[in-house]
Design brief:
2 copies of one chain form a homodimer. With 233 residues, chain A is an alpha/beta fold. Chain A is 42% helix and 10% strand. Chain A has 10 helices and 6 strands; from the N terminus they run E-H-H-H-H-H-E-H-E-H-E-H-E-H-E-H. Chain A has a 6-stranded parallel β-sheet, with helices on both faces. In chain A, strand 4, helix 8 and strand 5 form a beta-alpha-beta unit. The longest helix of chain A is centred in the middle third of the chain and has 17 residues. The first copy, chain A, is globular.
Chain lengths: 233, 233
């Protein structure tokens, strides 16, 4: 085992999936839940700024947003805000659906024996309802923010997911919808694929290191590349 | 008046503003209101696809989305869907706030005598609450979808707004947050400026014809160009 393997024993890569915005259509609910929590705390922030931070670790998210508006909050206030976001999100979680093709893709990978795992910046408490909508039980390898020291854009979540699958991170393909997934993928040494389902444009995803950007639900399992018409005109 | 004027009598340009996502922070509420209406009608669609169509005329919006999923609905069903969207949006309209700097910018333009108007693909019924949050009364020139034959990305709304101000469209600067504003601006012959507040990235806005893309609320009245950190890292 002296030399680095590019692929696992069967020569197949592993897939490491982000959850929110990649497998389940929950980004916009998270955005408005953060907005509700921030406004309850007296912090007014344009919604698009919240959108652009979704997928980061909650702690980094708070720091980044508050720095942008030149505010500081104590660690206690930040923890309280995160709790308010979780409550607001869980109130609307029944509106969250799997993204088109996600269940089929996971079932296909399992059928053909390609290892896959899920790695999310969220905590298990908020991830569980999303995993339920995907019909995924406790046997599925899921790494949440509870299990690592640093969430995205740090590489820890994807490194832990690859370790759980016993695959080389360099043989792994990270699939995510936000620039934070792609930055984390690059730092981990994995190949990043960006999905448009989080609301970022393809240029933003590719600038963050996506090797490809795809249109989920335009036929992800068929690997059909989206035409420009799918996302711009 | 045989030759085309580049500027009005004072040599100052006029400003033609989009409303939703440009002056008021309402895009994400519109997105989830459309999602609610579509789901009530049994049409499941990933939320990001709805986001990418916001700002188009409601009729074009419906056609484009339904074509993407290969469905057809009758004119009556489409009208009913638009009505359901309006109702769902109006239920959450009290969460809608002016975008940072918008009121100050409009007040500044009025103070220095630069003509401005608002041109929206929405109908007056949904625009009115947004205009109220901006503190704008009936004296402000507002062109809504009710007053033109075709909404964005057709140029009609901006052409009508310039006519209302009695300025040349070529002396006008269109400010909007969506690719539909910028496509309409280009077709009208105006200069388009894109704002990031609608959730599109700067590349998407510039590809649609934005002469510049700015970060509203990073200091719109100060014309400070956003650093890449404002929207990507």
């Amino acid at each position: 085992m002296g030399r680095r393997r590019q692929f696992d024993a069967d020569g197949k890569p592993a897939f490491l999936f982000d959850l929110d915005g990649t497998l389940v259509d929950s980004v916009y609910q998270h955005v408005l839940a953060w907005r509700e929590a921030l406004e309850e705390a007296g912090i007014e922030l344009a919604v698009w700024r919240i959108h652009r931070r979704i997928g980061m670790s909650g702690g980094l998210f708070m720091n980044a947003l508050l720095r942008e508006i030149g505010r500081h909050v104590s660690a206690e206030a930040a923890a309280r805000l995160q709790q308010m976001h979780r409550q607001a999100y869980l109130r609307q979680v029944r509106q969250v659906r799997p993204l088109p093709g996600a269940r089929e893709l996971l079932a296909y990978l399992s059928r053909v024996g390609v290892p896959w795992a899920i790695a999310t910046s969220g905590r298990l408490e908020t991830a569980r309802p999303a995993l339920d909508t995907l019909g995924l039980g406790p046997e599925v390898p899921v790494i949440t923010r509870d299990q690592v020291q640093r969430a995205k854009p740090d590489p820890d979540l994807f490194l832990a997911a690859a370790a759980r699958l016993r695959v080389e991170i360099r043989a792994s393909i990270v699939v995510g919808d936000s620039v934070w997934d792609l930055l984390a993928a690059r730092r981990a040494g994995a190949l990043g694929v960006g999905l448009l389902s989080g609301g970022y444009g393809p240029d933003e995803l590719e600038r963050a290191g996506a090797y490809r950007s795809w249109c989920a639900g335009c036929g992800m399992t068929e690997s059909s590349k989206p035409t420009p018409a799918s996302f711009t005109v």
